[in-house]
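hey team, just a heads up i'm posting the complex here instead of the shared drive bc the drive is being weird again. everything in one block, sequence lines first with there labels, then the predicted structure for the whole assembly after. its two chains so it's a bit long, scroll down
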Amino acid sequence: MDPAKTPLGQMLLDEITPVVMVLSTPSVEEACLKNGLSFLHMLTPFSSFNNIDVPVRTASDQPYRLQKFKLRLYYASAVRKPDLEVAKEHLRQVITEAGEKQFSELSLDTPEINHVLENYQSGNAPSWLHFFNKELIRAVSFSEHETFDHPVACLLAVSSKDEQPINRFIDLFNTNKLPSLLNDGMMDPKILKHYLLVHDNQDGLADRATKILTEMRSTFGTSDCALLCINSSTDAPVKHEENPWASYLWQNSDGSPGQHLGFFLNTDDITMIKDLMQDFSSKHIIPSMEQKIRVLNQQVSATRKGFRNQIKNLWWRKGKEDGTDSANGPMYGFSSTESQIRVLGDYAFMLKDYELALSNYRLISTDYKLDKAWKRYAGVQEMMGLAYFMLDQSRKEAEYCMENAFTTYLKLGSSGQQNATRCGLWWIEMLKARDLYKEAAPIYFRICGEDILHSAVMLEQASYCYSSKPSMLRKFGFHLVLSGDRYNKCDQIKHAIRTYRSALSVFSRTTWSHIKDHVHFHIGQWYASLGMCDVAVKHMLEILACGHQSKTTQELFLSDFLQIVQKTGQTFEVSRLQLPVINTSSLKVVFEDHRTFGSASAANTRESLWRSLEEEIIPSFSSTKSNWLELQSKLISKEYRESNVCVAGEAVKVNVEFKNPLQIPIPVSGVTLICKHFPSAVEVKSDENISRRENDNAGKCEELTACRDMCSENSFLASEVDFLLRGGETTMVQLSVTPREEGTLEVIGVRWKLLGSIVGFHDFDFNHVKKNTLKGKGKGKRSTNEILKFLVIKSIPKLQGSIHPFPDKAHVGDLWHLVLELRNPSEFPVKNLKMKISHPRFLNIGNQESMKSELPACLMKKVDSVPSGANANPFNKSDTVFMFPEGTTVQGATPFAWPLWFRAAFPGKISLYISIYYEIGDISSVIKYRVLRLQYNLQVLPSLDVSFQISPSSLRLQEFLVRMDVVNKTASEDFLVNQLSSIGSNWEISLLQPADTIFPSKSLKAGQAVSCFLTLKNCRSLLAAKDNISLVPKPVKNDIILVPQGSEDSVYDVSSEPLVNFHHYEKQQQELQHEAQGDLNTVDFVLISRPLQSNSDAGFVGPPVVMSHYACHCSTASTGPISWLLDGPRTLHHNFSASFCEINLKMLLHNSSDATAFVRITTSDSAVNGGHLNSANTAVSESSSDDQGGWRHVTPVNEVKVTSNISGTQPETPLSLGSVSPYIWSGSSSTKIRLESMSSAEIPLQICMFSPGIYDLSNYVLHWNLLLAEGQGDQDEMRRQSGKCVGYTYYLTVLQST
Amino acid sequence: MATTACFIIVSRNDIPIYESEVGTATKREDAAQLHQFILHAALDIVQDLAWTTSAMYLKSIDRFNDLVVSVYVTAGHTRFMLLHDSRNDDGIKSFFQEVHELYIKILLNPLYLPGSRITSSHFDTKVRALARKYL
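-- predicted structure starts here --
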């Protein structure tokens, strides 16, 4: 790559060229101004040559030819250091103009990153940046330490009009007008001079001019004088096709068009100027420079080259060291060797003899370094770098030199800053020329000095470096943001916006929240400050959901946003407003077709639960259709089946969850659903409408407005909700829309007003959201819009129902009387009511008569009433579905009431579901029936815990000992235990001890436990035994009053309606828990209690007056259906010396089952056979030491007495009977009898004893076998049909009689 | 302990999944976004550097004024980025290694979806403790 072709090469060839100082008289300027040009400007276009072709020889006589050459022309007054402040102001102007221009071109859409990259690719930065850089470099021209800006020649121009032109020439080169560089001795004042006489042809003929020229020639020498004739075109202005001045006069921003420049200069004039300049450069400047190079080179070689000179130089410098310690190092006059070397280098550089330049720069740089002349050192280093670059060798060296120069300039502080900037820019260009953009970017960053505006521009350029391939987009964005910040600080808002917007192309989809917020917030602010509030709002909207920011930042964002919105003075309508956040997955639609809901909680219950509940009451279509091909389609048209149906006048509710991501509260108002309603006729069109809406995103807003217009047509009514969302709060809002006319209703989205000024829309777009609608109906595949699309049918009656007073809290056992109230606000009646309750244990449907009954009174036993035989079997109706009486219709204002009994069956949180089915009479509609779903929740607390333990009485057959344990499980409640009853007429109970002793305080305190003992008698068997004929059971005493309530000793009737019904369900329930057992041997108890009136808990709706506790299936017989009793004497005296003892016993057997039983009694004599002597085993092992007859250790006292009695008299007997049982069952060893159902039998038994002692007569076994009737076994296979019972302990004491 | 330090874990999709300011310096209002900007920009360099070495600890890879970015890249290309102003290479290395262990424990949690935000408060306190210890 040719270094000269690179941008930097071009720049160097343009900028580091010989300077020609121009001195002109006012009359010369006057003549030129006729063309709208100054003298300098007139010459400028012709001072650069592309093909000058001048032979040059290097210092070592190597010839080469210069092709490109350029002169820089400056007026003498301009040859000085530019004023910093003026330059700055100029630069600011440049930037501001560029800002305006670029900003107006800026489109409002966020630029795509690819687009941005294309723009900035390969350093193709905006052109104004190049210009800016050039100006920046120009700002440090004509410095003292660099000689390439020092004029090489001087062009003196005098007009032919001037008086005494020769004197004018001399006057012009007067020292006090010359630039300070020449006067201060920084420059050699002996400078090449060229004298030019300017003649204006309009002033007359050139005679006078030629005369003066000859005079000049004689005075200044022939070669140094020239004549220039201008303004030859007399009348007609010359139109230049390519105006050579136009491109040079960029400064004329007030815009005189290029065409008017130089219109008095005809082609001859231009050719003359051209020739003049070419002649000037090729014949004068270049040879003189060449000449100077030679001279200087010789001088330098003489003084500095060679070993001796170097040593001398070193020595000399060392000695000089301590003397000069000024900041800039020593001053070097033009005649000093250092200065001459520098001039030599620069001249060589300008004549493109880079080798020579480099060698001189190298030479001088060590000197400057030793002298600590840092600025000069840096300048030389810079030139070395450039020379290396132009030679295209040793890139590393070049970069090193540039870096060295750069850092040295920076070390100088503010005085070196400008030079550092220039050096940096050259360095960057050098890197860019080698495609090292990434390395160039940090240098831009380093250039940034104190001047914020400049650093902003530099940072922007740095960002463009990062955008070149391979791009580093994040760095690109970051530097743009940095630059934008600096622009902002300099009030260059438009630039700031531009850079931030470019950065947005990188950051628009970022997940780095702080970055995103920062960018959007600032763009918004800046746009607002420019008054472009619409755009500002657009950007501010992006940062509203800034939950990650601190609270103060959130407040700042929100308040700024509000301010901007208020500035615009209009309400904005924004789709997908981020505040508050809508949780689309929480969306829930509740609508009522044939299913209607009594409460919101009922609607929230799972559909499957209701379905299973309603299975029996809803007529199924599948049963009615005879053929799968027809009927189904006849019953409901396809359209009705496939879309959701709702009824006109009934609200469709949509639950939407709003979440506030911020920590500050936000008010949200006017939350409504956006809906569309189509009358039935335009049904088809609506589909088109929707699809169009989906395609056409831009037109969405108009569409939505249109929707709201439709709302005003009263085809539907949408509810409005206002609420305040606290920080971090999530609220579920129920919105409803009520269609008023038939047709199609579609819910499109939700709209709300935030902070009272901005309207947000949110479309319910389910494309990627899992559907969460309640009424899926198995149509999961339906398109998303279908779910929110409803077919509105004409109004049909809807039942409203409630149960009151429904408790929130109850104790287990609480018995309440409730009323179900149904209302039908419409004029059409409903009929065929059916009801089903999910928990019949809790809720029981009463009779119409019990509507008015008072709770405690209706349970009391009427003294004179017939035992409620009518209610004996109340379950003739279907067990689960309750049909309201035939002809029940609900219509009009009067509510329909039906009594319900409530009893809290078990503790816990309970949800009760009630479905009421009804059919719509008199109107033909798609919906033939509807279902009202009610749901109630309540909390049931534990109260009394009752348990029973029953053991057979050993005294009497059919009598049992019952222990009742009652525990009060509440924490604070006291209860009165009123009554214990056994259910049915079979069992009679009585207390073993007086009630007062059980409940001394009459009440059961919290946490207290009480046990009491009762006897239980099976009167059924007794009755059956007595007379089978009497069918009407005699009233038996099956109620015990434990604590009398009040004065009247009234007894609760356990067979009254609610109690018996609940008993039925409790029994069913407990049957599942227990093993199924024979009905006849189980007894059910009811414990009736009531809370003590000291009830302070407000949660109860009125104190429940009665509580009932059921204990069912308390089994009496643990062994089987057969019970028996061994009856006989317990103690007897016998004289064993006379004979052995014979004792007669009786065994009473009772069959309590309802089948005939065969019983076999097997006696066994072997006592040692411990297998069936369970109870006596321990006694046997204890007395194993002396196995004496039948004696057992009973009490030590007895033992002493008795043993002493017998030991002497019967010493041998035990030994002889060692292995024989002490008693023998006499008679048959096995007896078999047949026992009819519910009958008893008596079997005589006899035993023989041979010695006195205490005997355990338990070694017999009862085998029983039930003879089941046909079919009975199938019914209940679980029941045991045969079994074996081991005899129980029966102690018999036989004593020796005296 | 460094006066300014910002620790960010960036998932392989360039999404920050954990952020904490662990410096002792009093918080400036714009510190958070500046730190994010610097670290975000440094990702460009990590992207290039990560494949040039087999070491996980990339040392300090980028700087902005006096703030230095040190990066540690896990095998799953999750990047731990620390912005700091103190020069304590060994401490930073150990910090990264220990945080890596903590991060692996997070990954082992079956309820944690890799690449999602780390919300564990336990992790947060541990990281802060490590920062106090090493930085």
